[in-house]
Amino acid sequence: MSSASAAAPSPSISGTGWLKGWCQGLSQIFFQSNVFTALLILAAFAVADWRMALLVLIGCAGNTLGGRLLRADASSVTSGMQGFCGALVGAGTYSAIGGQWAAYPITLIGGLLCAPVTWLVVTLFTKTPLKVFNLPSTTAPFCIVATGILLSTEALHVNGAPSTTVDSDAVAFARSLLTNVSEVVLVNNEWSGALILLGLFVAGWKVGLAGLLGSVVGSLCALAMGESLTETANGLAGYSGVLTAIALAVVFLQSSALSWVLAVIGTVVTAVVTLLMHDINAPTYTWPYILTTWVFLVIAHYLPGAKRT
Q1: What is d(CA 192, CA 201) in angstroms, rounded to the nearest whole number?
Q2: Which residues contact 241 (CB under 8 A, 6 or more apart)?
Q3: Cβ–Cβ < 8 Å for 32, 95
Q4: How many CA atoms lie within 13 A of 309 on its CB side?
Q5: Does the pTM exceed 0.85?
Q6: Res 165: pLDDT
């Protein structure tokens, strides 16, 4: 999920290209441009609730269309780069208000809004002194739009699915290894986590390994810092670490011993940021991953052994 661009007009996109971009918007949630990974992620949503899967597709379509209307280049659209934030907005909308009728137009509008918000974030990182760090917009547009939806739809909010309560460190840790992965997309389901993790290994063994590493380290940190066993077991304490580990180990930095060390340290920091955000009761979404990754990419800029991709 690198920075999207509002480029000059580019060649038209075929129907197949639109379909490919729509699909791969799901895999780009985990930084991948892979149709098979995307289908496994879609299956993970469907396992949770088919209405959630539908909202994810609507949000992704809205974001993809919005990106193209803002003149995103054709390759950015077909690779799914213009769809992943909208897909997450669909998941976030379902998490907030469920599958009621209002969720569908709200998701479509939210998906469309991700495009100009992405443009603004990219502008911040490319038209200011920050441009030297080559920071990605990543899932920040999703967080901004989803927070707006969350705060503006309070009258429509529904109770979330009941959490699985556990009273054993071992059980909490074991369950979290998969729910950390599924909670990246706001799903609390081990089977969904397993499908997504499989999709990551399909995309590349290093990607899958980094995701699993982030889940393990995130859970260990959560337990060490005293996060509740139930919260840990349901993936709420460790999911951002999954993204941080993948981002630093193999996506934004060239895979090396140093990138993997930074990924482990970054995952630990992400766990701390997550705990702090929980303490202030702020909408967390993927902010712990975003903030940590931005800081570590700035640090990596000054490390000779850390090479950007």
Answers
A1: 14
A2: 180, 214, 215, 217, 218, 221, 267, 270, 271, 274, 288, 289
A3: no
A4: 16
A5: yes
A6: 82
Spell out a b/e string for 182-211, using b for 16 or more CB atoms within 10 Å of the CB, else e: bbbbbbbbbebbbbbbbbbbbbeebbbbbb
Residue where the block lists tokens 């397993």: 194
Q: What confidence tens digit (pLDDT) does each residue in 216-252 have?
A: 999 999 999 999 999 999 999 999 999 999 999 999 9
What confidence tens digit (pLDDT) does each residue in 52-103 have? 999 999 999 999 999 999 999 999 999 999 999 999 999 999 999 999 999 9
Model confidence at 14, pLDDT cuts 50, 70, 90, reads: confident
Q: Under the phi-then-psi rule, with left for phi > 0, alpha for psi from -120 to 50, and beta for the rest, what region is 101?
A: alpha
User: Which residues have a Cβ under 8 Å from the Cβ of 289 and sit 6 or more positions away?
Assistant: 138, 139, 240, 241, 243, 244, 247, 270
With tokens 């919260």, the residue in question is 231
According to DSSP H, which parts of 73-129 are helical? Answer: 74-78, 84-97, 103-126
Residue 2: pLDDT above 80? no
How far apart CA 74 and CA 309 sit, in angstroms, is: 21
Q: Find out whether 111 and 63 touch, Cβ atoms under 8 Å.
A: yes
Find all residues with CB under 8 Å of 120, minimum gap 6, and list them: none
What CA–CA distance (Å, rounded) separates 72 from 68? 5
User: What is the spatial distance between Cα 215 and Cα 243, in angstroms, rounded to a whole number?
Assistant: 9
Q: Count the neighbouring beta carbons within 10 Å of the beta carbon of residue 141.
A: 26
Indicate the average pLDDT of the chain: 94
Question: Looking at residue 10, what is its pLDDT?
Answer: 60
Per-residue pLDDT band at 1 (split at 50, 70, 90): low
DSSP string, 170-216: HHHHHHHHHHHHHGGGT---HHHHHHHHHHHHHH-HHHHHHHHHHHH
Among the listed residues 21, 59, 36, 45, the one whose alpha carbon sits nearest the alpha carbon of residue 191: 45
Query: What is the token pair recorded at 136?
Result: 């990605």
Tokens standing for 222? 């959560």
What is the distance between the alpha carbons of residues 308 and 301, in angstroms, rounded to a whole number?
A: 8
